[in-house]
Amino acid sequence: MIPVLDQRSVAVGAAVSAVIVVPASLIGDSLGADDGDGSAWVFVFLGLVVVGFALGGYVAATANPNMPYLHGVAAAVAAFAAVQLIGLCRKVLAGDDVLWFAMCFRALVAMTFGMVGGIVADSVRRRTNSGGG
Question: Dihedral (C-alpha) 78, 14, 7, 111: value to the nearest 10 degrees?
């Protein structure tokens, strides 16, 4: 049987991710472009980005507990693809270099933390269902 994605859960998870990832990415990029004293803040915003992907994966996995890992990854990838498409268009129109390898690496990071969100959601569901605490 071919697994079927619940598009609504993926869309809700992707929206949750995007709400966190987009502002954190924009602020982190602007701080990273500045070589001043505030550049250590980039790591704080990087942390927010990965938490955003994990939280979106968690939301999607919670909404569809039959395939939590798949929905967690799908939500993170959907959010990543939408954000990267906008960023890619901006870079191309501005004449900036597009770092394809970096983009692929970021996609793997998004997938990984979407999976982490799915794992956490599944773990919470199993613990709740078993009555253990």
Answer: 50
Residues in the chain: 133
Q: What does the alpha-carbon distance between residue 67 and residue 19 come to, in Å, rounded to a whole number?
A: 24
* Residue 31 binned pLDDT confidence (cut-offs 50, 70, 90): confident
pLDDT in tens, 51-81: 999 999 999 999 988 899 999 999 999 999 9
The whole-number pLDDT of residue 26 equals 84
Closest by alpha carbon to 59, among 127, 10, 20?
A: 10
pTM score, whole prediction: 0.88
Say if residues 105 and 84 touch (Cβ distance below 8 Å). no
**Phi, psi dihedrals of residue 99, rounded to the nearest 5°:** -95, 95
